[in-house]
DNA sequence: TTGCGTGCAAAGGTTTTGCATGGCA
DNA sequence: TGCCATGCAAAACCTTTGCACGCAA
C-alpha cells in the first residue's frame, strides 16, 4: 500500500459491504454521499481503475455502463470464471473443471484462447429463473 | 417487412458488406456519409435496434460502446455461440457440441441458464495470437 | 517539503428522445 | 389521406481529463 486516504478506504468499504452485488460508479458515489462521506466522482473512477488493475475488484462491462464487484482473492490471481445474471446483475464466481476443459478445447481445436477475466457468461441465475417461472404462470 | 426505406437498405448493406467485421453506430454513419448516402445517427440507432431485435445483426457490448455485426441466419433463430477477439474486435460464430454440452452442464449442475445471445467469449483469435507471439520474440 | 490524491469543472463520446417534416402505402 | 420513418437538435448518460489545491509520507 503506497498510500492510504480516507476516500480510498471509503470506496473499498462500500464494495466490501456490497459483497456479491456489483455496483456502478455513480451509484457508489450516491451511497458515499448518503453516508456523509462524499467522494468526487472522478476520484471514485480513479480508485476503481486501480482496484480493477490489482484484481481487487472485477470490472464488468454492461450495456448501461460498467459495474464493479469486490473480489476477495482466494488464490491470488487465479483464473476465475464469471457468471452474470442478466436479471439481477449479480455475478458469481465459478471454478468448474468442465468449464476449464472447454476453454482448453477451444484453444486446441478452434485456435481461440479465451481470456477468463474478460469473459462473462450471461444468463439467468437460479433465483431469477424461479421468479420468472412464477410470473409466467400468471 | 412492413416498410422499406432507402436508409434501412443502406444500413443493412453496409453491415452485409462488412461481413464478419463488427461496426459501431457512429462509424457506420461515417461510412454512409462517405458513400454519398448520409443517414441521420438517430435513424441508424433505430434501425440497428430493430435489426438486433429480429436477430439479423448481433449487438456486442464493449467498453467503448456497442458494436453491430451482420448475422446471416443459418438456421433461423438457432442459438449461436460468439467468440470475440479482444485484439482485432472480430466476432466469430461457433457451433461446437462441447460448448453446447457445457451450457447444459451449467444449467443442470450449477443452476445457471446461459443465454448464448448475450454471452460473448472474449480472448485471442488465431491470427492475433500469432502476431502477439511474434512481437514477444522481439 | 515533495509528490500524489482529491475536487471541481469541462470536455468527449455514445446513445436516447422530442418534434416537425416528408415519403410510402 | 394517414401513418410511420426520418432528420435535426437537444438532452441524458457515463467516463475521462486538466488544473489548482490539500493532505499524507
Secondary structure class of chain A reads alpha+beta
Number of helices of chain A: 5
Q: From the coordinates shown, what is the CATH architecture of the largest domain in chain A?
A: Orthogonal Bundle
Helix content of chain A: 40-55%
CATH domain class name of the largest domain in chain A: Mainly Alpha
Q: Hey, roughly how much beta strand do the residues of chain A contain?
A: 15-25%
Largest sheet of chain A: 3 strands, antiparallel
Helix and strand pattern of chain A: HEHHEEEEHEEH
Q: If interface size is counted as residues with C-beta under 8 Å from the partner's C-beta, which chains form the largest one?
A: A-B, 31 and 31 residues
Distance between the termini of chain A: 54 Å
Residue runs with pLDDT of under 50 for 5 or more positions of chain A: none
Number of spatially distinct domains of chain A: 2
Describe the protein's architecture and organization.
The first copy, chain A, has helices at 6-18, 25-34, 41-54, 97-109, 126-137, and strands at 23-24, 57-62, 65-70, 81-85, 91-94, 113-114, 120-124. By secondary structure, chain A is α+β, with helices and mostly antiparallel strands. The first copy, chain A, has 2 domains: 1-74, Arc Repressor Mutant, subunit A (Orthogonal Bundle), CATH 1.10.10.10; 78-138, Dna Ligase, domain 1 (2-Layer Sandwich), CATH 3.30.1490.190. In chain A, the strands form 2 sheets. In chain A, strands 1-3-2 form a 3-stranded antiparallel beta sheet. In chain A, strand 4 and strand 5 form a beta hairpin. The radius of gyration of chain A is 17 Å and the shape is globular. Chains A and B meet through helix 4, strand 6 and strand 7 of A and helix 4, strand 6 and strand 7 of B. The first copy, chain A, binds a DNA duplex (25 and 25 nucleotides) through residues 2-5, 7-8, 24-26, 39-43, 45-47, 64-66.
